[in-house]
Amino acid sequence: MRNDEHCIFHVDVNSAFLSWSALKQLEEDPGSTDLRTIPSAVGGDTATRHGVITAKSIPAKRYGVQTGEPVVQALRKCPSLVLVRADFKVYRRYSRALMEILHEYTDLVEQASIDEAYLDMSGSPYRLRGSGAGLKAEEQWPLNAAHQIRERVHRELGFTVNIGISVNKLLAKMASDFEKPDKVHTLYPDEVPRKMWPLPMRELHGCGGATEERLRQLGICTIGQAAAMDPLILQSNLGQKAGEYIWKSANGIGSSAVRPQHEKAKSYSNEETTSEDISTDNYRTKGLEIVQRLGRKVASRMEKDHVMAKTIQVIVKTDDFRRHSRQATLGSATADPAVICREAEALMDQMLFSADGIFKSGRTLRLIGVGCSGLTDGSYRQMDLLSWMQEAPARDEKQRKKKKLEEMMRQASSRFGADAIRRGMSGGSESGADSHRG
Ligand SMILES: [Mg+2]
What we know:
By secondary structure, this protein is α+β, with helices and mostly antiparallel strands.
């Protein structure tokens, strides 16, 4: 690893819910069987046996039990399967304990879900210590730090994690998904052709089933084949954003920005319980003042975090304890207190004084709130892409893209030869043959 590159860890708990349920049971009844050592699963309603499997033990996996399948189907495969119900209170407790340990290694911890986190280890003191001759591979930076985290979590919390190491979040995430459990893997850019390109497309983080299918129709079955593709061809088939994402990711390009929790707020809002009921009589004198104060507060919090928002929302609670809200989306994002206050005031006016407004119904206000969402800091946000990818494009749009793609394929094949396009130029495994199915 070069010294000027980022060092990103992705820490992922192995079968988190199952492991945590097993630990909880051992805590409550130390003499009981460890769920991890028998065919067991978390999921559904244990009494009625409805629902789906959300986690399974390694012995259950040997029976073919799969995450996401109905409980009844899993029981058919493995009649002795022990089912336990999810307990999110316990899961959150273990999750917090894990994050506490991770924070001892760096301040830059981005919790990606209840059981996984990215760590920016670029500034770690281990970097200086763990190098030099005479050290075993495991003792060299950054493996030494990863193994220490892995061992500590196991020893202190009782469950195992996989840790993936690379220069960006995408590659670290892919690496942590290699062989499990209790393992550390690297996936540096120069390892991408050997370790990542032979994998099937669906293993690429962020590639959903619909995208996988569309790529298959293009003859792209492995990540390497997508990497070798002309990005324009991917874009014309998948759309600009998704095409770019797939091509970049397949080539190991991704963000190294690890965002600590406080920077990740999805919305900003402030609320205030009014000291007296606000009605049409005192709104202009008392209520409006609160709206302006809250608007300025939200704006200054956003400014501090260097984010802007596109959507402004106002919230009120009426004397019958109901919440009402209105929102408006601006043409462009802002953190300007004047703009936010102006929008909030207009929304309040509509909500309170219009023909079907709250004040027309005789209600009074007990609480006022102002919020901003639709945040942007100008950087690329993967979540936006994922939700975007789930939306099926309109039929005519599809037709248009298909036509454009056919045209581009025609042009490209006259340039490179059709076989080269279908196979991908390099890197892919030998599955080129079955790519002709599509
Ligand atoms: Mg996990």
